[in-house]
């Protein structure tokens, strides 16, 4: 091939990664990108500043109409999308805001996934179609005030009372909590850790919002309080006992974070790139100075290596070959690099980098939460350390 027939260099896709996508993948990506541009980007800085998302239930219904809720699941009104398509949707939503991607992820990859994989047929029929449409929002109760990285130490307990279950305990940092119609709650029982499908209108259930957040402000985050919540015998997820249940759900959600974090990074990088071309100092655009170009080059390397890693892990998931350690690899690398891209972008924007007129600082603060939720840096390092050495350093 002669130089004259080479495709032109695209600064926003320098490796030509779009070549990895088929027309259906591109259609999913473009649909989600356009929806985010129309429905999120014009408002998200205001939502972030106010610390609330007006009309979040309507946003959920719109995502449901696009097939984005539980999109990687099959049946029950779910889209049955490929892992790559799900990842692309996460990337495009997080390029708008991590909180909006969290709305979709918790709905589909945690609460719906738990019911789909471990629930009874009756539970699936009762909840999944309405969750897929966005009519019902779900949340996922695992983390507790005193037990985050060590969920085995949870204190929430479910005891039998005749044929019923009675749940008592508290969960913390629960996305979608106060707007959810159903909660998947994990609790100790005499039989081991079990999952329960809890309608949020059950007596004794409450979900007060967590205030004073400086991250994920365009997201609903709540505490779940279970004060002797009485549930029928068939509220328990029948197909799993032990931590394998919640951890498998988290693995599916972490896969979405691998893609989503690159969306936040892309948004910050593109803001810095555009700014460097337009901002003039010393009589020329700052993008013409060597130090700025070095920053842009290094950010482009990490951004597109991260997207390539997400693609690779997506193909492994599609083939049924994606291991939990590989998910940890992706989550650890991509979120860490995304934060660094945001910080470097902020330096290019100078003082403007801290303004909500630009997305950079919003993404940076959001990613501080993404860095530690669904597995802290240290936990993923230890997962990889154990896999590399064969020695368990957790305890």
UniProtKB/TrEMBL annotation:
PANTHER family from the UniProt entry: GLUTARYL-COA DEHYDROGENASE, MITOCHONDRIAL (PTHR42807:SF1)
Keywords, comma-separated and alphabetical: FAD, Flavoprotein, Oxidoreductase, Transit peptide
Domain Acyl-CoA oxidase/dehydrogenase middle: 139-229
Any Pfam family: Acyl-CoA_dh_N
UniProt protein name: Acyl-CoA dehydrogenase domain-containing protein
Domain Acyl-CoA dehydrogenase/oxidase N-terminal intervals: 23-135
Domain Acyl-CoA dehydrogenase/oxidase C-terminal: 242-388
Reported cofactor(s): FAD
One GO term (biological process): fatty acid beta-oxidation using acyl-CoA dehydrogenase
Coiled-coil residue spans: none
Organism: Streptomyces violaceusniger (strain Tu 4113)
GO function terms (MF aspect): fatty-acyl-CoA binding; flavin adenine dinucleotide binding; glutaryl-CoA dehydrogenase activity
